[in-house]
Design goal:
single chain, 587 residues, mainly alpha, 6-stranded mixed beta sheet
Length: 587
């Protein structure tokens, strides 16, 4: 019997949904909406709004854009996802992990122009949405597996460091012009040494950051971000800190919402943005998949990851058309909606409408908000996803993987976001190829008190059947490792303590043999026969034996050379050669 849906989540459409339920799951939910859900969705939407506003504006500034565009990138994606999104409580919007990627892509091309930066960010969102739609329709989500855990650890920590360094000047009350991390650090230290720090801005930013971090740890149910922003804004307005202390504030905000418009950029700009859009799409897919599955498991319903990507792709396109920027799912704001009792996507609609109403009727409420408090919001988000302990654990567990994480970190931090990720992925592919090229192999022996046959290198006390060499190969056989297989078998024969009559290849892990590897097998058998040694296989799968026949080795290997298991192959050998080894149990 299926589990009942969680009390905070509305049931989803059927798993085999079609038509409206498939392509617009949000509208399907609205058609079956129950009146008792409305109060919870409205309350949750109001609570969520209190977080969406400062976080959206903070991430916009971290992306190199005016704060207002963070609200544009919040409103439209929430409305679009409410129609196309399959997850009941998913919250979309600006994301801290994407901020450094967006800034690294658009700021060098913008040349200091805010208008160009906005247009480039919109174009990047459109490209991101296009890639996400491609992932959805072509089911290319497996490409996101290229972002292995070491790469993601290095990337996330580098992004956290990059964004924090970029936000520190705002926290300290001055600005920087540099785009790259080394230059930012240099200018930051130079500004501090020259006494450019605004102590009032520093006090507001530091106290806000401390409040957010302490409440997150000791009172996680309290809205730390909201409290910090409200207190800082009220103090700024009451004391006139913009005028009296010279701190930076948001200032006048445009009234209303922009009309949909295609961002005008050059073809050369689009070519420069394409790699970054692909990376953002894959990063978003990886994060969204994890969050979406967790929400579905908790709510007792199922979601299509292809539909999830379609919805986020459409949301990014909507963001790009309304002067927003690339967005993703939020693992920090989604729990806020859940904790507030959200039942359906109506929660996101309420949040979007409240922000829109604020921009239409009361944009002046945000005038006195210090930019230092927005910097504190962004820095607190970076501190929450930075994972230094994960890097240290990786160092203890697997040095090679730690090396990949470190290369990803250094590449993203000091070379560039896209370049660093590309370098780390390329190295991951090289490691994958190297492992397949030089797989593990072992000579097997019988170990007292243990069943089966075991690696003689790990169990030097193991005993071998006189005249028999059992060789295990832990990989497919293909063009890159066929000769290595040949060489290792011959080396094991040469190193045997007694003359070898027969070699049994424990072939359970050999899932394929290509043309080049088949030639290597044929050459190995001929060389062994010249020495009076037989070659047998144990556990070789039927499809692989069929491929050997198709590759012209049907006559080279007889059925008697293949056994179902290593144990049966050993027993045949002992029976054939009348090996008398009384200490052995029957295999």
């Amino acid at each position: 019997m299926a589990a009942d849906p969680a009390p905070n989540v509305a049931p989803g459409p059927p798993a085999a949904a079609s038509g409206l339920a498939r392509w617009a799951p949000g509208l399907h939910v609205l058609r079956h909406y129950q009146r008792e859900w409305l109060a919870r969705d409205i309350v949750a939407g109001l609570v969520l709004t209190a977080v969406l506003i400062p976080v959206g504006m903070g991430y916009a500034e971290a992306s190199g854009l005016p704060a207002i565009h963070g609200l544009y990138a919040t409103i439209v994606p929430l409305l679009v996802y409410a129609v196309f999104g399959p997850s009941r409580n998913m919250v979309l919007g600006p994301d801290s992990t994407l901020a450094a990627v967006i800034a690294a892509l658009i700021l060098p091309l913008a040349g200091g122009s805010t208008e160009r930066a906005v247009a480039l960010a919109g174009a990047l969102a459109l490209l991101t949405g296009g890639f996400q739609l491609l992932i959805s329709f072509a089911r290319l989500g497996l490409v996101a597996d290229l972002f292995s855990k070491p790469i993601r650890l290095g990337f996330m920590n580098a992004i956290a460091l990059t964004v924090i360094v970029g936000q520190l000047p705002k926290l300290l009350g001055f600005s920087l012009e540099a785009d790259q991390l080394p230059e930012r650090v240099q200018q930051l230290l130079h500004g501090i040494a020259k006494g450019q720090v605004n102590t009032v801005a520093l006090s507001i930013g530091a106290c806000s950051l401390l409040l957010i971090v302490l409440l997150r740890r000791w009172r996680p149910g309290w809205p730390g971000v909201l409290l910090a922003v409200v207190v800082a804004t009220l103090l700024s307005a009451w004391l006139g800190l913009e005028r009296q202390a010279g701190i930076a504030v948001l200032g006048e905000m445009p009234r209303g919402l922009p009309l949909p418009d295609l961002p005008l950029v050059q073809w050369s700009d689009l070519r420069a943005l394409v790699p970054g859009a692909a990376v953002i799409a894959l990063l978003s897919f990886a994060d969204t998949t994890v969050l979406s599955r967790a929400l579905a498991a908790r709510g007792g319903y199922r979601v299509s990851q292809d539909q999830e990507m379609l919805a986020i792709g459409a949301a990014n396109i909507g963001s790009g058309l309304f002067q927003g920027f690339s967005i993703s799912s939020s693992a920090s704001r989604t729990p806020v909606a859940q904790a507030a009792g959200a039942r359906t996507q109506v929660t996101g609609v309420v949040g979007a409408l409240v922000i829109a109403l604020l921009l239409f009727f009361a944009p002046g409420l945000l005038h006195a908000m210090p930019t230092a408090v927005l910097a504190a919001v962004v820095i607190s988000a970076c501190l929450s996803f930075a994972d230094v302990s994960g890097m240290l654990a990786l160092y203890r567990q697997q040095r090679r993987e730690f090396g990949l994480a470190l290369i990803a970190f250094l590449g993203v931090a000091f070379v560039g976001v896209i370049e660093g990720i590309a370098i780390a992925i390329a190295l991951s592919m090289l490691v994958l190829v190297w492992n397949a090229w030089h797989p593990y192999s072992a000579v097997l022996a019988r170990v007292d008190g243990r069943k089966g046959f075991h690696d003689l290198g790990r169990h030097p006390e193991g005993r071998q059947v006189p005249g028999l060499l059992i060789f295990r190969w832990d990989a497919p056989l293909f063009f890159a490792n066929g000769e290595i297989f040949h060489a290792r078998v011959m080396a094991a024969v040469d190193a045997a303590a007694a003359p070898v009559r027969q070699v049994i290849v424990a072939a359970d892990a050999i899932s394929q043999v290509d043309v080049t590897a088949a030639e290597a097998l044929d050459a190995l058998q001929r060389e062994l026969r010249a020495r009076g040694v037989e070659l047998h296989f144990a556990g070789l799968k039927g499809p692989v034996k069929d491929s050997l026949a198709r590759l012209g080795l049907a006559d080279a290997f007889t059925p008697q050379q293949f056994s179902a298991t290593v144990g049966s192959a050993v027993n045949l050998y002992r029976s054939r050669y009348a090996v008398d080894w009384k200490d052995w149990d029957e295999a």
